[in-house]
């Protein structure tokens, strides 16, 4: 089973630091180094949402750590991945390795990103258009996070097909990508070896009630 939980951060209270003791020391240290409050809020909310889902939905208490590639792991046969952008955070949970990416649509010079795409992708998608650009961007990012190396230049070797299959020089990747909806003017994509069973929205008040 693969599921997604997401939450909007705009209802978080001014005293959000109250929730830091519920997080791992590494996460707290990273939050304290951040200069922008928005980055702090997104990170805190994402990790609180993750811990709440572990306990309430999956009845698991897991020790979370980062591997050598900087990807969060649980040390068990259970996987998760986090993404956040703009006003939203999202977490994916699965019995399989998983990657997720959400991106708020902002104005960009799309021509500057040509090195990210395979030659076939440049033919498949109108990448000068916002929807196509962010759709493929989040697909590539989610695949990179599934593999554990993020958005990397080697991703040009992978072609994301319109049906979600990922073609590699030597065959087809075991995982595939699945776009899903969070809000207008956002793109969001999951990369998984499984099906996507549920996408669940949460309000900050639900997270607040759980930890209090």
Automatic annotation (TrEMBL):
Organism from which the protein derives: Solibacillus faecavium
Name the UniProt record assigns to this protein: 4'-phosphopantetheinyl transferase superfamily protein
Keyword tags: Transferase
Domain 4'-phosphopantetheinyl transferase N-terminal: from-to ranges: 13-92
Domain of life: Bacteria
4'-phosphopantetheinyl transferase domain location: 97-163
Family listed: Belongs to the P-Pant transferase superfamily. Gsp/Sfp/HetI/AcpT family.
UniProt GO molecular function: transferase activity
Keyword Flavoprotein recorded: no
Matches recorded under PANTHER family: L-AMINOADIPATE-SEMIALDEHYDE DEHYDROGENASE-PHOSPHOPANTETHEINYL TRANSFERASE (PTHR12215:SF10), PHOSPHOPANTETHEINE TRANSFERASE (PTHR12215)
